Amino acid sequence: MSKASNTGPTVDPRRWLSLSVVILAAFMVVLDTFIVNVALPSIARDLQADFSELQLVVAGYVLGYALLLVTGGRMGDLYGRKTMFLAGIAGFVAASAWCGLSGTAEMLIAARVAQGVFAAAMMPQVLSIIQVMFPAEEKGKALGIYGAVLGLGAIAGQIAGGLLLKADWWGLGWRLVFLVNLPVGLFAFVFAVWMLRDSRSPQRTRMDIWGVVLLAAGLGLFIYPLAVGREEGWPAWIFVSIAASVPVLVWFVRYENALLHRGASPLLPITLFRNRSFRFGMLISLAFYSGNAALYLILSVFMQSGRGAEPLQSAYAFIPLAAGYFAASLLTPPLKKRWGNRVLLAGTVLMAAGYLLLIEAVGRLNGLGIGEMFIPLLLAGLGQGAVASPLIQTVLSGVQGVHAGAASGVLSTFMQVAQALGIAAIGTFYQSLLTHFGAVDGAGDASVSTLQGSLAAIIALSVLTYLLLAMLGRKPQRANPESVAQAAGVGNAER
């Protein structure tokens, strides 16, 4: 008998190098979600773009990305994860070049939608490749690195955008924030061709086209109004669109169930939600990521509008948050092996403590207040990192490889929906508080009181995250065999 047959499937000896390549691509995608925010004023001046067009520059990317994440993950299952990953990188690089060369606002919006579509083809493959490539004992560490890089990318986008605009190489200005993807993407593509192994679901089935249409329509009706509603002033059509998304998504779920009962292959295997960890993980992701996204928004607005910081100065305030997130993401996976979900619970407590200290710190700011906010944001970042990476592992732990792409796509979609919800809800709350405190306290203290009130709402989301994690940690009650037998006996006696 051969050695291979005794040891089981061969573990890829280049898996850690391969991980660095797929994570580089993931970092580029997350970076592009945030890097454009700093460049919006320059884009407006150069392309004569009005405010609604600037909104679409941001929302177009999020929309194209969120709508097709589940589809991208399923296509990786069916046609090969390496194949879809390479197609996603190639398309993303081409769309980035299109963004950088755009001569009108309309062209830039279209290019940003294309960026989002190709990001959706690429990103679910990253988690799927990690799930397939690493043995069980190494998945936690690999997912910890993945989570750390994603958190770093969210904050690095604002810093990188400010630095690129300041450098203004070759007089390209805002175009650099898109063109920087070309060398990074090409590097990732070449090394992915060389190092990655392809994998796919063993079940060779056709793509569920109607499922794609229904899911994209339902998510579009829900996410687009959330992305633009706050800046549009929440007109009536926003709420009509959100309400209309509900029957479309219900139709999608029923259609997918019907396919499953007929033995066909649905876009989204609804059986995924029978897994308790996956089901609870989706709810936890909604609470956790909505709070994170809201924090990035309100802190940036507070620094620039409330404290008069330049965009790059505002980005510096996020450095302790990023440092804490990155460190905790790397340190917590081995701790989770020993302590389980208690690590995530401790992370939520640390997050809430950081936010409480931040409420106290902003009440005594001098100048920009970066020094006063350092320790609270460092603690908040440590808490976020202690939750994010183990949460991904917890959500996907019970998913079989055959559905790895679909599960990764669903998780990524829930993250995007959570961010849109957090920005819409707490962003609107922030603006309402600013108006209220501006009338009561005057312009000088209004921004401080507004930030403190908004942080209280984010603390509430941290508490909700804690409660959901605690519920996940409880083992489902199973009926005692003796009590079952007794109940059966009673039932027979009654007959």
Automatic annotation (TrEMBL):
SUPFAM superfamilies: MFS general substrate transporter (SSF103473). Keywords: Membrane, Transmembrane, Transmembrane helix, Transport. It comes from the Bacteria. Residues 18-477 form the Major facilitator superfamily (MFS) profile domain. The chain crosses the membrane at residues 21-42, 54-72, 84-103, 109-130, 142-164, 176-196, 208-228, 234-253, 280-302, 314-331, 343-362, 374-392, 404-430, 450-469. It is found in: Cell membrane. Its main location: membrane. It is a multi-pass membrane protein. This is MFS transporter. It comes from Paenibacillus thailandensis.
